[in-house]
Write a structure and sequence with these properties.
- By secondary structure, this protein is α+β, with helices and mostly antiparallel strands.
- The chain is built from twelve helices and seven strands.
- A seven-stranded antiparallel β-sheet has the order 4-3-2-1-7-6-5, covered by helices on one side.
């Protein structure tokens, strides 16, 4: 599984949330496997008379690790370890107690420290995420009639957003750090553990002697993995600067390029629920592309406007809520609210570009321009009169239609 990207963390898109959930599940699965591994090693160090049974559990966990890791070297290494331990268990019933060394304490320390960091970071992430959502709603609900409260709500929103961005990157760093550390750590300590077994397995000396070249091979193959881990950690050292730079560039950026052939944009908007008796506003992640406006409800993708070429956009200054605008289509009106004035301006420019692309696009010489522009809408109505009434109902068309 690929590492979490810093840019994805800052953007906080549904794709990032889904990917973060998958990484957390992998961490929980690894925690269970590591706990079982520690218990197995502890049994081996406690009682020689139960050593044979403990080897069975130990070898099974090694096999589970080979399934857990997707890299070829790690996967092959743990499969070989599993086969060796299984042979020792099959051929010997009575073995000496394993001398306690650093293997079990290091595993316990790794479990208590590294996994704990991920858990604690995840708890803080959940709190800051809830705080950000609360601040977003308070900022959105702030009345323009109360400028002081509105300004304070905006400041709280920016503060909560900055804290969330930092904590999001911090959680991603801890998850990536654990993912980078666990493979070479477990392989290194597994090799060390199995090397120590050679001194105690007198009868199994022949098997372990034949196995030692494999240990050296995997030790060498582990070096590029460790180098890759160090390189990845170096890139993550400036994670806080990357977040600050990203937010500052977003705040100061004035250039906003729009591709007239296919205007694209995405981000969070508040959507007014028209069918609700209380006119609720729900925060949704909207995407504009291929002249279609869509939004995500949880993880489900819904289509808000099928064809943006047939719509117009209008600013709503008469509402008490700030940064509102509406998208008018021949069949319905969509009332939306941006989180900032800058984002509202960009959304309006994008939607207007979609409409203008329809006006600027060449039409067939033998076709009627009106039919070309509204053939999709007209197909939804049975009669000409119904189509005309719907077209005139669009804001502004009562003058020109």
């Amino acid at each position: 599984m690929s590492m979490l990207s810093i840019e994805e963390c800052v953007r906080d898109s549904p794709h990032f949330r889904s990917k973060l959930h998958a990484h957390v599940q992998v961490v929980l699965e690894f925690e269970q496997l590591l706990s079982g591994f520690i218990r197995a090693v502890d049994e081996l160090s406690r009682a020689g008379n139960s050593y044979a049974n403990a080897l069975g559990q130990f070898s099974s966990i090694l096999k589970s690790f080979s399934i857990h890791f997707d890299r070829g070297v790690i996967k092959d290494a743990f499969l070989v370890f599993h086969d060796v331990i299984k042979k020792i268990q099959t051929n010997f019933n009575i073995l000496q107690d394993q001398v306690k060394g650093s293997f079990l304490p290091e595993l316990t320390k790794f479990s208590q420290n590294e996994l704990r960091k991920v858990k604690d970071s995840r708890k803080i992430f959940d709190r800051t995420s809830d705080h950000l959502l609360s601040a977003v709603h308070k900022s959105a609900n702030a009345s323009r009639q109360k400028p002081i409260e509105a300004e304070e709500a905006s400041r709280n929103f920016e503060t909560a957003r900055t804290k969330f961005s930092h904590q999001s990157v911090e959680l991603a760093f801890q998850i990536n750090l654990l993912a980078a550390k666990k493979q070479p750590f477990l392989l290194e300590h597994a090799i060390s553990h199995l090397e120590s077994q050679c001194y105690f397995y007198k009868v199994a000396n022949g098997l372990l002697t034949d196995f030692r070249p494999n240990l050296a091979k995997y030790s060498m193959e582990m070096e590029p993995i460790q180098e890759s881990m160090i390189e990845s950690l170096k890139k993550m050292n400036n994670r806080k600067d990357v977040v600050n730079t990203f937010l500052e560039m977003e705040r100061l950026s004035e250039d906003f390029h729009i591709d007239p052939r296919n205007p694209r944009f995405e981000g969070y908007l508040f959507k007014k629920k028209s069918k609700s008796a209380f006119k609720q506003w729900n925060r949704r992640y909207f995407t504009c592309g291929d002249f279609r406006l869509c939004y995500f409800k949880d993880t489900r993708k819904e289509i808000a406007v099928e064809d943006l070429k047939l719509c117009t956009v209008k600013l709503l200054e008469e509402l008490d809520r700030r940064y509102c605008f509406e998208v008018v289509t021949p069949t319905k009106t969509l009332c939306l609210q941006a989180e900032t004035e800058r984002e509202r301006t960009r959304w309006c420019e994008i939607l207007q570009a979609c409409f203008m692309s329809n006006l600027n696009s060449p039409t067939d010489k033998n076709s009627n321009p009106t039919e070309t522009s509204f053939h999709i809408v007209r197909s939804k109505f049975r009669g000409q009169s119904q189509f005309t009434e719907t077209l005139r109902a669009v804001h502004g068309n009562e003058i020109c239609a």
